[in-house]
Amino acid sequence: MKDEFTILIVDDIPGNADVLCKTLEVEGYSISMALSGEVALKIAPKIKPDLILMDVMMPGMDGFETCRKLKEDPVFENTPIIFVTGKAATEDIVDAFKSGGADYITKPFRSEEVLARVGTHIRLTQTIKKNEYLVEELKKAVLNLENAQQESLAKSQFLGRMSHELHTPLNAIIGFSTFLSMGESDPLNEEQRESVNEITKAGKHLLNLVDQVLEINRFDSADLKSVSEKAPLVPVINGALASMAELAKDKCISFDNLIDKDREIFVNGDPEKIRPVFLNVLENAIRYNKKGGKVALSLTQEGPEKICVAIRDTGDGIPEGKYEKIFDPLYRHS
C-alpha cells in the first residue's frame, strides 16, 4: 500500500479548511485545498487525491453538484468523498449519498471523529484496490496456467506448483473480502458492498479453477488416491446442486430436479471424486445457459448395474464439430 495519502479539502471558507488541514496533518496526510467546487474540478485530476472532504454550501457550484461531476470521471469512481457540513437534516444526508458521497460529518465536528472516518475510508479503499489488483493478477496467472496446460508436455509439474502457490493469496482475498462485507464496526455503503461482493465471487471462481487444475495434475502425475466404497448417489447430487445455488441465482437460472430426494441409489466409487463430476457438469449447464433458463436433472436405472443421470440445460449446446474436444483438459467452448 501507499506510504503517503493525499486528501483534497474543498471549502469556500479558508478558516474551516485550515482547521481541517491542521487536524489531518498530524497523521501525516498530504493536504491540498480548493476554495470552490469549480477549482476542485480543475485540480483533482492533477493531484488524484485518495480522499476528498467536501463542504456542501458553497457559492456557485455546491458540494453535491461537485461530487456528481467528479463521480462522472472514472478516475474518481471509487474515490471516497466525505461531506463536512452544518446541514444535518435527513433530506440533506440522503442527497449527499445520492450524489455519490461515501460518508457525512456534521459541523461542528470533533477531530477524533474526522480522523477515524478518514482513516477507515482510506484503509477500505486501499484494501479494495489491492484485492482488485490481486484478482486481476490471479486471472492472468490462471490464464497462463490454462495455456501452459495445452501447450507443454511438461505442464503437470508447472501446473501443480503454480496452483499450490495460488491457493494462499486466493484464500486471503476471499477471507478478507468476506470480513469486509460483514461490516460490523464500519458498515459499507451499497457501492462498496457490491465491489467487495464482486471480489469475493471472483476469488471463489478462481479458487475453483485452481482446484480443477490441481485435480488434472493429480490425474496426469498418477498421484490421485481414490477409495472405492458403496456410496449413496442422490445425496451427492443434492449436495452439488446446493453448492451451485448461488451461481444459478446470479445467472437467473432455475433448477428442475426430478430426482426423488428420498430414493436410495448406491454406486461403487469414491464420493469425493464423484461430486466434482456433477459440480463441473452443473457449472457448465449454468454458465453456458441462456438468461432465465433452466437446468433439469433426472435419474433412471437401466439395469441392476447401470444408472443414468441426465442433466439438461436450455443453452445453445456444444456444436457437433467440437464433441471430440469435450474431454480435453481445460478446454472451454467460447
Using the coordinates shown, work out and report the CATH topology of the largest domain: Rossmann fold
- CATH class group of the largest domain: Alpha Beta
Gross morphology is elongated
Low-confidence segments, given as residue ranges, are none
Number of domains: 3
**Alpha-carbon distance between the two ends:** 37 Å
Oligomer: single chain
- Order of H and E elements: EHEHEHEHEHHHEHHEEHEE
Please state the structural category.
alpha/beta
Q: Give the averaged pLDDT, no decimals.
A: 83
CATH superfamily of the largest domain: Response regulator
From the alpha carbons, calculate the radius of gyration and give it in angstroms: 27 Å
> What share of the residues lie within helices?
40-55%
CATH architecture of the largest domain: 3-Layer(aba) Sandwich
Summarize, please.
This protein has 334 residues and is α/β, with parallel strands linked by helices. It contains 10 helices and 10 strands.
Question: How is this structure best described in words?
Answer:
The protein has 334 residues and is an alpha/beta fold. The chain has three domains: 6-109, Response regulator (Rossmann fold, 3-Layer(aba) Sandwich); 118-220, Methane Monooxygenase Hydroxylase, Chain G, domain 1 (Up-down Bundle); 229-325, Histidine kinase-like ATPase, C-terminal domain (Heat Shock Protein 90, 2-Layer Sandwich), CATH 3.30.565. Helix content is 52%, strand content 15%. It contains ten helices and ten strands. The chain has helices spanning 14-25, 37-47, 63-71, 90-98, 111-151, 155-182, 190-220, 233-243, 245-250, 271-287; strands spanning 6-10, 30-34, 51-54, 81-85, 103-106, 229-232, 254-257, 266-269, 294-301, 307-313. Strand 3 (51-54), helix 3 (63-71) and strand 4 form a beta-alpha-beta unit.
